[in-house]
Amino acid sequence: TRRNQMLSTAERNSNIWASLLWISGGKLNTDKCFFYWLQPKYTYGTQRVEYESMKKAPVDIHITNPATNTPIKIKRVEPNKARCTLGVMLAPDGNCRIQIQTCQSKASTFIGKVKHSKLSKHAKWTAVTTILEPAINYPLMATLCTQKELKCIDKTLDNFKCHALGLNEHFPSAVLHGPMELGGIGLPTTISRTTTTRLNYFF
Fold first, then answer.
1. Which of 77, 91, 121, 156 could form a disulfide with 82 if both were Cys (CB 3.0 to 4.6 A apart)?
2. pLDDT band at 170 (very low <50, low <70, confident <90, very high)
3. Alpha helix (H) ranges present in the chain?
4. Are the beta carbons of 55 and 13 closer than 8 angstroms?
5. Residue 85: strand, helix, or coil
């Protein structure tokens, strides 16, 4: 069947790659290997195409260790679970939960260290806008995050930006991000930064 052919091809190609690495003096770290099996199904309740879970579509891929000739079972990951790919936490079904959590965690940790440091307010502002924000915005361009999800990141960043600017932490976000022509401060939101990056990428 087509399913068996796909599995056979995936397993064969994986073993060829492992053998080539071994011949050239390297070794594939199977502990870091994983694979997704994407078997689509149409769910009438949600009117969406989803992917079968591991329980509904059990498949395995094995790689033989060229040095010992021992087969090793490769870890399989559910389609809704994200894994890091080129710095982005991507899940085949398109959800952004893990990437948003990663961004929020990174922002909270960075801000916590900078906020309680002896740096001047100007230095704190520079650290967040030149180091933290680019690191957060980079992976978001490749995701399908909603505005609601991106606003969660802004809440974390806005609190610190108000601190660095000498403003009350409850300063209205509408004024903080509003255009200067209308009396706002004009700080771009994560949504606007992400959208701009996507447009620049395609054009």
1. 91
2. confident
3. 2-23, 97-115, 121-127, 133-140, 147-164, 173-177, 190-202
4. no
5. strand
